[in-house]
Write a structure and sequence with these properties.
By secondary structure, the chain is an alpha+beta fold. The protein is built from 2 helices and 8 strands, in the order H-H-E-E-E-E-E-E-E-E. It is elongated and about 105 Å long.
Length: 165
C-alpha cells in the first residue's frame, strides 16, 4: 500500500530547503533595515584615502623635525612641553584626546604657551582608560600621536608614530 505524499519524508525535506532560505533572507532584510547606517561603510573612499595620506605626511614631517613632547595628564590638569624639535617661535597647539572604546568621551583643547615654555590646560577629572593623545600645531603642518593608559602623573614622552591612521 502506498502512503500519501504528505506522510513521506522527501517532499517535506525538499519543501523545507526553500522555506528556510526565505526565512533567513527575511531576517537579513529586517536587520539591514532596522540597524540604519553602518559606520564601517565609507561613502567616499577616495577622499578618505587622501586624508590618510595627508595624516601620514604630517607624522613623517614631525619625525623629520624630531618633534617630541613630555606631558602629564592627571587630576584635571594637562601639562605639555617640547622635549625635542622645539621651533624658534612657539605657537598654539591643538591636543586631541580620543578614547579607545567610548567616542562620546573624546575632546580637544587649544593650548597657548606660558612664559616658561609649558603648555597647560584643564581636562576632565575622570580621564582613566586607554586614550590616543595627538598634538598638532595650529597650522596642521605636523602631527605627533601615541596611545596611553591615562592618567599619567609622571612625565611621559610623546613621539610621532605611524599607527591608528
Amino acid at each position: 500500500m502506498i502512503q500519501p505524499w504528505y506522510k513521506q519524508f522527501w517532499p517535506w525535506f525538499l519543501i523545507s530547503l526553500p522555506v528556510t532560505v526565505m526565512i533567513v533572507c527575511g531576517v537579513i532584510i529586517y536587520l539591514s533595515i532596522s540597524e540604519g547606517n553602518f559606520s564601517m561603510v565609507v561613502d567616499d573612499y577616495y577622499k578618505r584615502g587622501k586624508t590618510i595620506n595627508a595624516v601620514i605626511e604630517n607624522v613623517e614631517e614631525a619625525q623629520r623635525r624630531n618633534i617630541s613632547f613630555e606631558f602629564t595628564a592627571n587630576q584635571g590638569k594637562l601639562t605639555l612641553k617640547y622635549a625635542s624639535g622645539e621651533p624658534e617661535e612657539l605657537s598654539a597647539l591643538r591636543v586631541y584626546f580620543v578614547h579607545a572604546t567610548q567616542p562620546e568621551k573624546d575632546f580637544s583643547r587649544l593650548l597657548s604657551v606660558a612664559a616658561d615654555g609649558t603648555y597647560r590646560a584643564d581636562i576632565p577629572d575622570n580621564i582613566s582608560g586607554k586614550w590616543t593623545v595627538t598634538v598638532e600645531p595650529y597650522n596642521k603642518v605636523w602631527k605627533v600621536s601615541e596611545k596611553y593608559q591615562l592618567p599619567k602623573s609622571e612625565l611621559t614622552k610623546l613621539r610621532p608614530l605611524l599607527y591608528g591612521v
